[in-house]
Structure formats: C-alpha cells, structure tokens
Hints:
Layout: H1 7-20, H2 25-36, H3 45-56, H4 59-76, H5 84-89, H6 97-104, H7 110-123, H8 127-131, H9 144-174, E1 177-180, E2 183-186
Antiparallel strand pairs: 1-2
Amino acid sequence: MKKQVHSSEVRKAALDRLAERGVRVEDIAEIVYLMQSPYHPDLTMEPCIESVKAVLEKREMQHAILVGIELDTLAEKGLLSEPLQSIIASDEGLFGCDETLALGSVFGYGSIAVTTFGHLDKHKIGVIKRLDTKTSGGRVHTFLDDLVASVAANASSRMAHRLRDEQEQAEVLAAGQIRVEGKAVDEAG
C-alpha cells in the first residue's frame, strides 16, 4: 500500500512554495481588503488575513498551489517538453489550463468568488500584477498569478458572506430579538 501524505505535510509544502515564490498571506489579504472595503468601510486587514489563512487551509487549494507552482518551476528551468515548455514559459494567451486549475478551486465559494476571480484575472491587482509572467523579471508565474487570484477571490467571498451574517445578527440583537430554531423571537416572549 502506498504511503498516504499527511495533511500537515501538504499544508506546509503549499505555504512554503508560496513563500519561496515571494507571496505572503498579507499580499493576498491586501487584495481581499481592496475587494471588500467598498462594501464595509470599517473593514481592517485582520479579518482579511484570517480569511486568506482559512482558504489556504483547504486541501483542494493546497493541491492546486502545489501543482501550479511545480509546473511554473519546471518551465522556469526549461524541463518541460515542447511545445508545453514554450507555452507555459511565455504564458501563451490561448493557454487556459492555468485559469482552469485556479477556477476549479473557486467554485466551492459561490458566485461571488467566481465573478471576483474573473475580475482579478483580467485586472491583475496587487501581487497578482507582480506575478504576471510578462512582468516578473524572468520568473515563470503562469499558474501562480491565477492561483493567487483564486485564493483572494475565495477569501473575499468567504468574508462577504461572514460580514453579512454578522450584520444580520447585530440587527437581530439590536431589535431585542433572539434566534430560536432559525426564527426571530422577541425576548419578552
């Protein structure tokens, strides 16, 4: 029987690969902040960082990061066969596997994540712009820029839903109501 890789080893490897490629949790959280602050003026970086960390705890996201960065690294070293080597190294415009891998990791966070991913992929905000292959100073980040967009989109969607839940809960408490089996009930009875 083959050895099963422990989830802590996968998590550490994914986070290590991001760090090796110059991507910090805070870099991704800055994108989340930019996406969510127009809707929540009192937003701070702390919950954005927390949301990014939560997304990075997902095994599917970790796997996507490991696969994408591995392909970027192999292309950077010239170790892929042609024509794949040239396609990935140049971030060929019609090559969509990088977006497909990243997009597959977005579907679990709903429509907000999907539309945010599309926006980030098109506009290359924050660290995503720095990672874009065409401006990355010789390093290949064909997959990584999209994966960072995926993490940011997921964290942004996660945060949007949580902030709404908190807002609704505060409204219920302010109205002097409590929740009983999903229904609002006045505290008096």
